[in-house]
């Protein structure tokens, strides 16, 4: 799953999946509309619904955070 | 009689001295405190003016993170009769250096922490350090008060108030120079049209180097309303953003459509009910899709929605449309009609006036809000600010926006497209030529072309040599702002040329 999310992130905001720092949002690599695109794409690819309340800095600040949020969501199914 | 914007601050500081003026992440300042600190900044500027013997009515740059202190600095500069120009702290050094070269600021207002960074742009002039401004008790003396009052008295309404830099196709940003009169004219309309009062609270999204912020700043200053600088990071956290609006009882927002789209696309409006607090939803800066606006309208049907349109060159906006009927998701939203005291001329290729609904033309503007021109750039000024072709009797300047429009059956103006290669991306106005100029300067590139993929909202770069996107990003990062860096690269052996020997953009567009 991590590889897939990484590829999706790179596709949507180039470099955001490979980014190794703490906060891809503050770095400017991923902007707010790309966050929206990522949410919509994750919903489609994994056939789940992401509650808007989950769209936070903590959950989207880097690949690790996104993966961990997705694991929680999918694990609950 | 009002000839300068300082009158608003002076009056409001008396009427609402202890009322909160501006709030940011670090706290609030009252209108009385705002004025006092502005005058302290003015004192420091006058001191430098006296010591170095230069005249007033000169450019002063402000180099700070976005915060309430930036606004206080703006007014301190204005009190002296000088004019302000904010420089984004996230801007790459070479671009900041170009702006400084054009602006030639006499003084820079910054913080102790940022001074060194500004030094690195090659600036060796005077500084006012915000934190220590006004420490000298002399700044509050009767003599100082008189000296500042005299400088303010000497302002005339056609003097420049601010210079905002916007993308330039040759790689050098253009400094749009706006007068006191332009802002007075615009804000008088805003506050009247939308019935703004001292009870209102504004939720500011626009950066201060972007002129949408003019509406927020000066509407609040004129009426004694409250301005909340929304922390930037809330704009990708839609539920928290709406909670912020609710907690701070924000009544009015004036955002770029992309900020509104994040909220509607992520379905955040169903989580937070703003119907009791949010009264006015204004937007400007790019096309607002009705599909997204309809989501807002369904959750907040009683709010007032207004689509404002205009380039920086006409003091933020020149036409408006109050949303007064239903639209299907696919329909385009009108940009409406001219504001009072502004005239719109839609001119065809032969400079003949377009009327009726069957033809298109370029939107041109006349009015007192027109910029004086591009600072220290007579060529670009002469190209965009031209004699009204319908008037051969007396000098009469119009601004050619480069936007192609038509009238609909209601007589409302509809935006169609650009005449040139200017785009809007995330609310930023970008000349694709500025990106191409930066790419051209990289080693190994012989030919490139930038297009905007409107469907994917991506800047696409075509190159005649193979290059990885990541590699390109790294190289461009220090040259152009992050929002200008292409989101996709397409490498081809050679770029197609049209009959004139120019890169064939039509053919390239088919490759998207």
Itemize the secondary structure elements and their pairings.
The complex is a heterodimer of chains A (about 80) and B (about 500).
Chain A: H1 2-12, H2 32-46, H3 57-60, H4 63-75
Chain B: H1 6-15, E1 20-24, E2 27-30, H2 31-52, E3 59-63, H3 68-79, E4 83-86, H4 93-103, E5 107-110, H5 115-119, E6 126-129, H6 142-153, E7 160-166, E8 174-179, H7 180-193, E9 201-204, H8 212-223, E10 226-229, H9 238-247, E11 252-255, H10 257-265, E12 280-283, H11 290-299, E13 304-309, E14 319-322, E15 337-338, E16 342-347, E17 361-367, E18 373-374, H12 378-384, E19 385-387, E20 397-407, E21 413-418, E22 422-425, E23 428-431, H13 432-440, E24 448-453, E25 458-463, H14 469-477, E26 488-491, H15 505-510
Parallel strand pairs in B: 1-10, 3-4, 3-5, 5-6, 9-10, 9-11, 11-12, 12-13, 25-26
Antiparallel strand pairs in B: 1-2, 7-8, 8-18, 13-14, 14-15, 16-17, 17-20, 19-20, 20-21, 22-23, 24-25
Helix pairs in contact in B: 1-2, 1-8, 2-3, 2-6, 7-8, 10-11
Can you tell me about this structure?
The complex is a heterodimer of chains A (77) and B (512). Chain A is built from 4 helices and no strands. With 77 residues, chain A is mostly helical. Chain A is globular and about 30 Å long. The mean pLDDT of chain A is 92. Chain B has 4 domains: 1-10 and 18-176, ANL, N-terminal domain (Rossmann fold, 3-Layer(aba) Sandwich), CATH 3.40.50.12780; 194-340, Rossmann fold; 342-420, Luciferase, domain 3, CATH 2.30.38.10; 422-510, GMP Synthetase, Chain A, domain 3. The model of chain B has no long low-confidence stretch (mean pLDDT 95). Chain B is α/β, with parallel strands linked by helices and 512 residues long. In chain B, 48% of the residues are buried. Chain B is 31% helix and 25% strand. Chain A binds chain B through residues 13-15, 18, 25-26, 28-29, 31-33, 35-36, 39-40, 52-53, 55-57, 60, and chain B through 90, 233, 235-240, 258-259, 261-262, 265-268, 270-271, 426, 457, 469-470, 473, 482-483, 487-488.
